[in-house]
Structure formats: structure tokens, C-alpha cells
Amino acid sequence: MRTSGNTILITGGGSGIGRGLAEAFHALGNKVIVAGRRRAALDEVVAANPGVSAMELDVERPDAVRDFARRVAAEHPDLDVLVNNAGVMRPENLLAPPDGLADAEAMVATNLLGPMRLIAALLPALQRRPRSAIVNVSSGLAFVPLAMTPTYSATKAALHSYTESLRAQLAGTTTEVIELVPPAVQTDLMPGQATSAHAMPLAEYIAEVMSIFANQPDAAEVCVERVKFLRHAEREGRYAQTFATLNHRAR
């Protein structure tokens, strides 16, 4: 993917990895649109980065996604990069589940159905561009799950699988498909994560990701060094050990 000259839509762009990517791509001269539920967070990004645009979006609502896609097509007909970054991560105790599955359903709706709905709604517009890209943000937990966040890990595993199939189906078209695979990063995704010694500092993560985009423009997966412990665990024959280590740290 080119690192400049794009019009880029980033969901979950009001904070964390989404904001970091938005600011990094904006600094390279891209036209950037950040989208998310929280208007105040989006306004902060716009105020700190003149030229960035913001649009409210609730990816849990199918009707909102369709309306949003129509607005994007009308206001930004030059859109050529979609970054599906919005995500929700919540711990779950499967031995004592609450009445109903509200948290699990919210994670499935945001982390998996959200990207699927946006891709379906925006792919026709992306395919009309001379070149375009879809970037799906999964997680190292797609490859080795964190037991305390079973649904989150499962949604990211499903998004990885979906991304592989999407890439195969779009092969030979003008739209490339990239998977961005973060490790734990110091953001507010989970309570305490922003200051966790086990999480990668956000600025370091964004810098390494942007370096990979710049130096490996044909990469189908963008994996920083820190996530390869999880990404390659099964391939390297150490899945059980990695699962035990990851979940011991989390206790």
C-alpha cells in the first residue's frame, strides 16, 4: 500500500491505535477521515490535526453503516483506503455468565460484523478507484487466545479468517487486502492496559507499523516484531507453551 496520496477512512479513529494511524498517515500528506461513536474524541483528533475530517459511526447498527457509507461516497468520492480498526475488548467469566450475552454480542457486532458490513457497503466505491486497499486490524490474540477474553479472541480469529478469504476473492482486482496484527499496545482498550509493562508503547508501535508500510509495500500482513511470539507460535511448534505463558502473565 502506498503511504501517501491516499484518502483514508479509519474506524475507531478517536483514540488508541486508530488515532495513532490517523495522525501518522496525515503527517505523510494523506487525506484522513476518522470515524467513531464518541464525537468528543473525534473532535480532539481534528483539533490537534488540522485537515483531518471526522464522521460519527456506530458499527453495531446495520442501518447506521449503510447511511454512513452513502455519506462517505457523497462527501469523499476519492476514498481509496478503508482501515477497519474499531474494536471492543471485555473480560468474561464463562463459569458465571451474566443474564444474557450483551458483552459478547457487542464484541461480535463491533469486531467482526462491523468490518464485514463496512466492506460490503464500501467495496463497490473502492473497486471504482484505480487502486485501493482494505486494512483489517486483527490481533495477536487471533492466533493464541487470551482465556479471560474469549469472545474478543474469537472475533479476531474470525476476522483473520475472513481477511484471508477476502484477499483471495479480490486477487486480480484493484483492491488489495492487508491484515494489521497488533500485540498488546498501551491503549485504553482494557482497564490498566495504557500503563501495562506487558504492552508495547503506542508511539513505538505506530512507528514500527509505518516503517513496515513504507519498506514492505506489498506485505499482506503487517506484524511488528513483538507480535511474532503469538503470530508464529503454532507454525514454530510452541503453541501450548505460548498459550500457557500468555495466560499466566494475565493472571
Gist of the model:
With 251 residues, the protein is of the alpha/beta class. The protein is built from eight helices and seven strands, in the order βαβαβαβαβαβαβαα.
Describe this structure in words.
The chain is of the alpha/beta class and 251 residues long. It has one domain: Rossmann fold (3-Layer(aba) Sandwich), CATH 3.40.50. It is 45% helix and 14% strand. It contains 8 helices and 7 strands, in the order E-H-E-H-E-H-E-H-E-H-E-H-E-H-H. The protein has helices spanning 16-27, 39-48, 62-75, 102-127, 150-170, 202-215, 228-231, 239-249; strands at residues 7-11, 31-36, 53-56, 81-84, 132-137, 175-181, 221-223. It has a 7-stranded parallel sheet, with helices on both faces. Helix 2 links the parallel strand 2 (31-36) and strand 3. It is globular, with a radius of gyration of 17 Å. The protein starts with 6 loop residues before the first strand and ends with a helix.
Please write out the topology:
Layout: E1 7-11, H1 16-27, E2 31-36, H2 39-48, E3 53-56, H3 62-75, E4 81-84, H4 102-127, E5 132-137, H5 150-170, E6 175-181, H6 202-215, E7 221-223, H7 228-231, H8 239-249
Parallel strand pairs: 1-2, 1-4, 2-3, 4-5, 5-6, 6-7
Helix pairs in contact: 1-6, 3-4, 4-5
